[in-house]
DNA sequence: ATGAAATTGAAAACCATTTTCAATTATACT
DNA sequence: AGTATAATTGAAAATGGTTTTCAATTTCAT
């Protein structure tokens, strides 16, 4: 994760922001997990080793991590912002189970291509998209 | 909109809930517009003719309207729930402009078909999906 | 080292939404 | 029609995730 740490530092320098121990610890905690973490999840995880880091600092730093291109927001429809790794992780969409809450990461190049065609048709300059399919997973369908 | 009103009343009766003047007024206000309305938007609109209707009642009734299958939630990524008509309106997705906030309603049968195929591949019983493409509209792209 | 500017944690504020509660109302049943 | 019962209402308070405020502390270019 050295590469990610460098990218983060570069992002900070570019904005004339400072490299602090709190920011680095929060970044490391985020990089350490592969799950989709809410700010609160991360706050709790960080807290275990660093009880002196504040809630607001976690929120603020997670915004910076996103700006540096290292994290992307996942919106599962509850009103909680969750983050997943962005650097070195390909774009994907989600199948989300309405019963157990589990989700599956999926990618379909044909869909992606048709999405581009659709944007083009509307002369729309697409930057990103979000596609979530909700339903019942193999284990939960009656 | 008589059909919708009947469906709403049926939905209420089925749950042993009561048909009240407030509920009917809120439903009519919702049916009257074709926009994507937040609860607050609707509260304000209703207020103009009916200053006695409370905020909580609007929230509660909008939930009932959704349960009756007359409204569907639109999630534009801010944390505000907006509603659009569901009855008599075909499913569609959105192209959302990051600059001016305007959105375009789109439908691509090929994408829909591939989405089904994707769910099938994961033995996932898809119920609904949400696809939003974010970017810059014709007028806003530099 | 110095000083300007950025950062921090704790607490308060924010804001959409939900809950509480006592008063009112709709409906089913005499 | 009158009554009992359960649902509904509006106002206010609570909730919960997120953001802001502010005084104290820290970073870093000079
Ligand atoms: Mn993911
Ligand atoms: Mn729409
Ligand atoms: Zn499941
Ligand atoms: Zn635009």
Concise description?
The structure is a homodimer of 142-residue chains. The first copy, chain A, is an alpha+beta fold and 142 residues long.
Description:
The structure is a homodimer of 142-residue chains. With 142 residues, chain A is of the alpha+beta class. The first copy, chain A, has two domains: 2-85, Arc Repressor Mutant, subunit A (Orthogonal Bundle), CATH 1.10.10.10; 93-135, Ferric-uptake regulator, C-terminal dimerisarion domain (Dna Ligase, domain 1, 2-Layer Sandwich), CATH 3.30.1490.190. The first copy, chain A, is built from five helices and six strands. Chain A has helices at residues 2-14, 21-32, 39-49, 55-67, 109-121; strands at 37-38, 71-74, 82-85, 93-97, 103-106, 125-136. In chain A, the strands form two sheets. A three-stranded antiparallel β-sheet of chain A has the order 1-3-2. A three-stranded mixed β-sheet of chain A has the order 5-4-6, with helices on one face. The model of chain A has no long low-confidence stretch (mean pLDDT 95). Chain A binds chain B through residues 75, 77, 79, 95, 97-98, 104, 106, 108, 110-111, 114-115, 118-119, 122-138, 141, and chain B through 75, 77, 79, 95, 97-98, 104, 106, 108, 110-111, 114-115, 118-119, 122-138, 141. The complex binds manganese (II) ion (2 copies) and zinc ion (2 copies). The structure holds a DNA duplex (30 and 30 nucleotides).
